[in-house]
Backbone:
């Protein structure tokens, strides 16, 4: 059925790919204007429509840069209920700045974080309103008006772009050969035991040009954090129900199945805005199971929205933070990162 649907949508995908091709060429030929930001910029992005791990990689980069530089984060703020430039503060919520920016803001309260649809204007405002010396943009590879000082393209190990199709038949929002614009190709969500043979195969598929560097990272799941309910013990093997509103929930679901007795799991659309009745239904569904230690587990991104629903205070809900780890050459990556922001010194 899915194959048949893709065949039906393929003409639209061809038109989409052609339109994107023309748009990129207009920027390349300087028919459409592009410019450097008012501050040095590090751009993260992907060719697919979400799900490559931009947020944990953004957190990793910010955490490193803040040790030597004065970084800021600029995001579009997808899913927020506001518009224009907003500089996050102590009153910010996922509704006002978006769930992914809110997740980062909660971890790095001292780092200027802003959302703005116009990345050029956003960088300019950050220069005017903060002491930032370098700006990290978490999803701006397709924002061609901004010429990034360092472009990092993320590629999901489980869904590499060479196995995908352009929208709407597939998930590619940019043409495959636009990978040439990246300075760094970063393969994410790799198995921890990725061997040399598999790395060589992936590099061959990526076909990097001589000035592109390739790196591999994996996910590390941290200890669960409780956000609602009476303080409850969270231990391996107990019965849990999982839910998420992320682009690709299978790895998260598999992790829960490996660590717990996963009695149910429900996936929602990416950036889903949860309501009290939805979560309450999930909890009531758990009533069919016998364990008095039953609890709900979700992702960190989803937790930023659940924090706003105070009526959930009686339901034990946890989230699991994610960090990234380089499988090799981490120091080389950090060196490339710093070489691109020489003006950003304290």
Residues:
């Amino acid at each position: 059925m899915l194959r048949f649907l893709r065949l039906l949508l393929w003409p639209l995908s061809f038109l989409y790919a052609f339109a994107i091709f023309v748009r990129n060429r207009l920027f390349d030929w300087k028919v459409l204007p592009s410019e450097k930001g008012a501050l040095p910029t590090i751009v993260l992005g992907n060719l697919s429509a979400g799900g490559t791990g931009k947020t944990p990689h953004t957190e990793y980069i910010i955490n490193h840069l803040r040790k030597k530089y004065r970084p800021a984060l600029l995001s579009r703020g997808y899913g927020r209920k506001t518009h224009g430039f907003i500089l996050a503060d102590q009153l910010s919520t996922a509704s006002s700045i978006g769930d992914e920016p809110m997740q980062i803001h909660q971890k790095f309260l001292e780092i200027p974080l802003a959302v703005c649809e116009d990345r050029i204007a956003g960088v300019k405002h950050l220069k005017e309103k903060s002491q930032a010396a370098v700006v990290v943009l978490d999803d701006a590879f397709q924002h061609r008006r901004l010429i990034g000082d360092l472009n990092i393209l993320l590629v999901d190990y489980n869904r590499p772009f060479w196995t995908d199709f352009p929208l709407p038949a597939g998930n590619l929002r940019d043409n495959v050969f636009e990978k040439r614009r990246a300075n760094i190709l970063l393969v994410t969500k790799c198995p921890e035991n990725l061997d040399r043979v598999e790395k060589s195969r992936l590099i061959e598929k990526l076909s990097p040009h001589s000035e592109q560097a390739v790196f591999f990272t994996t996910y590390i799941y941290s200890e669960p954090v409780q956000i609602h309910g009476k303080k409850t013990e969270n231990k391996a093997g107990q019965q849990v129900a999982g839910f998420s509103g992320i682009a690709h929930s299978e790895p998260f679901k598999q992790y829960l199945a490996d660590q717990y007795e996963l009695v149910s799991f429900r996936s929602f659309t990416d950036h889903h805005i949860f309501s009290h009745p939805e979560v309450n239904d999930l909890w009531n569904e758990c009533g069919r199971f016998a364990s008095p230690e039953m609890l709900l587990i979700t992702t960190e991104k989803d937790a930023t929205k659940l924090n706003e629903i105070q009526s959930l205070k009686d339901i034990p809900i946890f989230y699991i933070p994610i960090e990234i780890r380089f499988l090799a050459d981490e120091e080389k990556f950090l060196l490339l990162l710093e070489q691109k922001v020489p003006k950003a010194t304290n």
Remarks:
- The chain is about 30% helix and 20% strand.
- The chain has a mean pLDDT of 92.
- The CA atoms of residues 189 and 218 lie 5 Å apart.
